[in-house]
Structures are given as structure tokens and as C-alpha cells.
Model the fold of this input.
Amino acid sequence: MTIQSRIRQQFEDSVAVKARALDAMAAPIEAAIRLMADSLRAGGKVMACGNGGSAADSQHFAAELLNRFEKERPPLAAIALTTDTSTLTSIANDYAYDQVFAKQVQGLGRAGDVLLAISTSGNSPNVAAAIAAAHARGVRVVALTGKGGGTIAGLLRSDDIHLCVPADRTARIQEVHLLTIHCLCDGIDALILGEAP
Done:
């Protein structure tokens, strides 16, 4: 297979997964948008966490809310729990890596806030621990996963929202995660700015 053939296959596979994801995820993405917008309008915040590429997605999402997405608007309260190396390393050293997000949720989370918990596999122990901490604090959870949702799917409550990409390949799941994050940002802005009912 030539390099250009491989490139074409990557694009075609990505388009196919995105088409399947649209059918499966449009309604829960809308529910997540409304949940986050309601929290932000009520003075709450959105916290985001994940590992590796999902950590980068957490930071991307928080930056788009706190700064701006595509339109000018006031800053929105968002924080990525993946960025403070002193906090992350002290928790990992003094307790366990599984607690690096959970302890931040315990300290920062308040009833009415939202946690965006990102795990491509759905099996990240530290993301699962953050979900448990969120539930204990009255923080609603939006889980962004793939591969059927893994162990995280079983942790979610009926009032949580599961955005599960219908795919098993990590690269394809991550591509849909980024698109989903942009959909969340666009939808939140539309509601905050009064451009959508």
C-alpha cells in the first residue's frame, strides 16, 4: 500500500466513524451542551480531565471556554485538572496516581458544577476516581469515551451523560472527541449568546 493510499484510507475511515457517531451522539451531545450551559449561567464551572491525548483535549476544551471559541463573549468558568504539575506530582507521590484528578474535584468541585471526564478506552482508573469524587460532591458528569465505555460506563448515574464514540480504534475515537469538544463549545456559545433556543 502506498503512502497516499494509506492517507486516503485514514481519511475515509475517519469520515465513516464520524457519520456513525453523528447518529449515535447528536442527542447526548445536545444534552451535555444544555447541562454545561445551565451550570455556567448559574455561576458553576466545568472541570475537565483525562490522560495523554485526553489531557490535551481537556486543556483545549477549558481554553476555548475560558478564553473564547469562535465568537466574542465573556469568559466562562472552566478548568483543566491536567495542568498543575506541582498538584499532580504531589498527589501522585503522597497518595497514588489514581487520585490526581479526584483530589482536585474534592477540593474544587461544588454542587451544580460539571465534570467532563475523558477516556478513550473508558478504563482510566484516575478518571473513574474523579467520577466517584464528582458524585460525592454533587457534581454532574459528562463522560466522553469510546470502545463501549469500558468500566466508566458502569459508574455513570442516570443523570450523568455518556458520549460514547461507536468505534474501537483509538485514533478514530480521538478524532471524534475533538469534534465533540468543538460541538460542545459551539453549542454552549449559542445558548449563552441567545442564538439558539
About this structure: The mean pLDDT is 97. The chain has seven helices and five strands. Residues 3-41 form the longest helix (39 residues).
